[in-house]
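cron nightly-structures :: item 1 of 1
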Amino acid sequence: MLTAESRRRSFPSLEQMTYLNTAAEGIPPLEVHAALDAYFHDKQQGMDGRAAHAAQWEAAKHLTAALYGLAAGEIGICSCTSEAYNLAALALRLQPGDEVIVNDLDFPAGITPWLQSTAAQAKVWRARDGGLRVEDLHPLLSPRTRLVTVSLVSFYNGFKVDLPALVEIIRRHSAALLAVDVTQALGRIPLDLTGVDLVISSTHKWILASHGGGLVGVPAGRADAWTVPAGGWFNLEDPFGPDRFTRAVSKRGAAGFSVGMPNYPAVYAIRAGLEYITSVGVDAIDGHARPLALACLDGLRRLPVEMLTPAEPDALAGILAFRHPAMDAIHRRLHAAGIHVMAQAGRMRIAIHGYNTAQDVERLLITLGEALHHAA
């Protein structure tokens, strides 16, 4: 990932393109392909393959736990972040008068379950100068605040929230729980999730696995707060017991977010993706990719575009975003040149991972400058 040789070996498709769109879809290494082949082999064993499935499940939980700073017993795996948030909404059992604080830099999965609630009021923490400022959260907190939900790194413009300051202000001014989506951070930057009550991530972006996974972390001390009252069987204490037709008892905490038969193909891919990321090292990935992101930010600020990402190094992870009136034409020109970025919701988004190079950034900036010249 960090050398030309290892990049060529694990990511052969990157030889044919300049890929700067990991915030939408990560490019899985060939190690993930091998894991999916292993799933098929194990599935061909019928019920005898379930022991291998269970081993992959446990390995994926241990790898996730290490990156979250939790124990494997504090990890659950569901199908996606949307499912995780909807199950979290069930767990909170919101009542009339309760309040949930969302924000305007978040992905819909973390916002809309609370807007669907007919009981609680959703209050919006609004970004200022491209970032979520903790001092702007303070007036929104009240004794009725049950939850603050936020992404560590915004999918929209890449702003990285000051998590220690966020935890401190929530604890000082409320009894609210804090849910953090680390989808745009996991596998890209080192994590310190101290003080977080619920951690959620998807699996098809920076950890380079597949679709079909949601990685849930619940510290043991918060297990009661996040016990999900959902039907199923995998999430229940005794789904086939003698009283199964009269009551259902959910497992506490993260285990309760896995409501049915696990998506084992995704679990094999998750294990392989996390194993690959761990073998390279998140610190090494960040040490390689952060200078590229800073160089790209500097280059973008010299171009005639409206930057959406704040020019604050401490608030930068791997995503940069900007706006321009001729966005669609510029995006078509970049794509025609083999440069893959995201154009959506009125902005262009660039994502820089450990498999990117200085040449990728240079090629982007040169081609983008040419496209802007033609659009002028």
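cron nightly-structures :: done
The mean pLDDT is 96.
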